[in-house]
Design a protein that fits this description.
By secondary structure, the protein is an all-alpha fold. It has two domains: about 30 residues; about 50 residues. It has six helices and no strands. The radius of gyration is 20 Å and the shape is flat. About 5% of the residues are buried.
Length: about 100
């Protein structure tokens, strides 16, 4: 019985990966870079999985709440920056540390 459940889970994972690849392929053919909108969810999803682990294991999984909250918040911040086009692209951290760096160049 467990081997049937494992096989079914493997088929589901393969189907999800195939659909994800197909969506990215169609977006590339259509000239739309969907990866710009999708990548923050790869940070949000593990954070949400950590938070879901709390409900399954109870108080013993309390450290997962801290980790899950930090990872999810970081992913949401990156999604926000990505959707609004704000952030620090192209050496922005250098400009943030030394605002005169743009004037010298």
């Amino acid at each position: 019985m467990s081997s049937v459940g494992t096989m079914r889970g493997g088929v589901i994972v393969r189907a999800i990966l195939a659909m994800f690849g197909s969506v990215l392929l169609v977006g590339t053919i259509a000239g739309v870079n969907l990866w710009l909108f999708i990548w923050p969810y790869f940070i949000i999803a593990p954070g949400l999985l950590c938070l879901a682990g709390i409900f399954q294991r109870g108080q013993a999984a309390a450290p997962l709440a801290i980790l899950g909250s930090m990872v999810t918040a970081t992913g949401l911040l990156l999604l926000y920056q990505n959707l609004l086009g704000v952030g620090l692209p192209h050496g922005g951290w250098r400009r943030l540390a030394d605002p005169r760096a743009d004037q010298a160049a």
